[in-house]
Write a structure and sequence with these properties.
The protein is about 35% helix and about 20% strand. It has 23 helices and 22 strands.
Length: about 625
Amino acid sequence: MTSSKTGVKKKKSPATASFNDSDQTTACNRQCSNDYILQKHPDLSYLIDSLDEILQLDIVVRGDLIVTDDVGIVVFVRSNNFLSQSVLNPGVTLSSDSIGKNAVGHVIETHVASVVTAEEHEWEPLKKLNTLAVPVMKQDRLIGCVGFATSYDSPSSVITVARTTIETAILASSKMVEARRTIEELYILREFYQNLDNSIGVMMLDRNYRILQTNREAEFILGLDRSDLCGRFLPDMIMGECELFTESTNEQEVEFRTNYGRVKARVKIQPILHTDSTHLGWRLNLEDTDQENLCPTAPRLCEFNHIVGRNAKFMRLIKLARSIARSPSNVLVTGESGTGKELFAQAVHCASSYSKGPFVAINCAAIPSELIETELFGYAEGAFTGAKKQGYQGKFVQADGGTLFLDEIGDMPLELQSKLLRVLQERVVVPVGGTKAIPVDIRIISATNQNLEGMIREKRFRADLFYRLNVISLKIPPLRERKDDIPLLVEHFLNIHAKRLGKENCSITEEALEVLQGYNWPGNVRELENVVEMTVNIADQVIDVKHLPDRITNCKSSPEVKDGGEEVLPLDEIEKREILKALKAYEGNISQAAEALNIGRTKLYRKIKKYNLVLLVEVGEGM
């Protein structure tokens, strides 16, 4: 297309546009290929479809109807020969930069409906025409334009009626677009749930690669929650060149950009077709390349999909934990005894970039203070009498390339905390009795049920070590704050222990569940599991209230906690918790626990019996 006006810029049609050759037929409709329109913006295709309803109106016969994309490229023409086919064809650009002042160009610049009269045009073919253009908007973004050209001597009512008709058509098409998109998304989601597979990561995408749905495994691979993924455009998350969007069905490795770093995964994309072969969207399969080298005989660690709970507060914690899993930063897990701190540590490890390395755990409270240094840092050959001839690799070296879990970090001796801090800062370990520094690449996850900030004030824990460990904090709520999860947890533990004990049809009554939900659970989830295991042992098939321990059936309902306040506990409950804490700290040693509580051994035995803590100590609650 050329211009007779000097100085007017010319713009080439896009090379990707292909056009129908049917303009020599009797039909007066011409448009870019449907593939081009769908690729540019599918809403324009829906708009053109909706224009069919108005093409038969007399008003349209009084002019040429045009649809352009957001930069002014004509994608559809309804020609009544006001402009010749040699001048106006799909692929022509009507922007102001290309042909000078005209209604379409003005709309592209201002996003406001515009009318330009004959002599105002700069392009010669339009000088005897009046042009109208109406913007097509989507969420405050211009996606196209509908133009109308009529003779300059036509009545003014022609432009007025044409504008009303076009605006009505645009409104109708937008509603049709939403309805059609909803139907297509429902079809895609039906395909997703009918073929649900959590053995690999799966994403369902619309035609524009917008994420509609994901499964759990895809969330774990990317370290993002479903709410963080759905609605995002997949191309925005992929780094570098990628053949994924060439509709290749071959597997390929892709690097994703997430909020917490880069993640590599092997992906395969497949089109989703309707029964009439209409292309609706895409199914994307993902496999975590970091998991490929895991030893198949390694102990099974807890993953996020193994953690049981639906409580809103608990689910927010899981979402946070999953989102930070890919980060190499240190994590501090806090919470009362029995809440599952190590399970969270294992799940973070399994979802992290260190997952192909080992997960090494050490309980800082269970090892005598004189031995914990050698356990952590190891020792060199001949370091002391009785040492192994070949020396000993400490937990730091054992965890190289993986995760070191420091449980009960609050019980680490103060004199050892400075050595731990140096290792965390320098990432090298010097074994006891050795001189050679060993570099280590590990992630540190620590856990405690103690108030470390209070210990800092009491000079029992180093502030600099606390800040080094507490880069990311995960606070696990006690079971009494997520009692709505008790039925779910009971069912989970019931299935495990009933199967192990050969009572697979074992069940629990609603009355028993209500009693369990009324108990405070000072031992948290661990205590609940112990109770379920005990009841499965003593019940025949149905667990009822009579099978529950007296401490549970005799207790009163949990005290309510107001928002922003602290729970007020009965004195007996406080005493019971302190006894449990002492028994745990001294591994069930009655003499040491009694001394710490400043009471006699006999009195401590009486209180253990009073609070029915014998079973808890025997099955490990006091460990």
